[in-house]
Specification:
This protein has one domain. It has a two-stranded parallel sheet. The chain is built from four helices and two strands. The longest helix is centred in the C-terminal third of the chain and has 18 residues, at 85-102. By secondary structure, it is mostly helical. The chain is globular.
Length: 113
Amino acid sequence: MSSLRPTLRTVTDSTKPCMTNGTAYLMILAAVDGADGLLHGKLHDGHGASCAIGNYFDVNENTTLQASLIDEVAAVNDSVPHYTNRKRKLYVSRWLRWKLTQLGMPGFRTKTA
């Protein structure tokens, strides 16, 4: 179970695939990029806003993620509580792109001068 998103439940005998490594980060990035902004501190707020992981599950409801990956992404999402939802989205998106670069996925490296 995720310690930062306790409303998520542990799935023990699921036929849903568990996304891992670069695939999981890429799918989270796609969900985040499709959002207007990211909520801080919880999965959903009841008014349509979601955090990065909440957006992932809104888009990919037939998959699962490892609890450690959920906590890692949620920690980054929650590390900037003073940001607006829009700025938080940009921050998390930038971090996910950096993470994908660190995993050796081409096309996510930022341009340098």
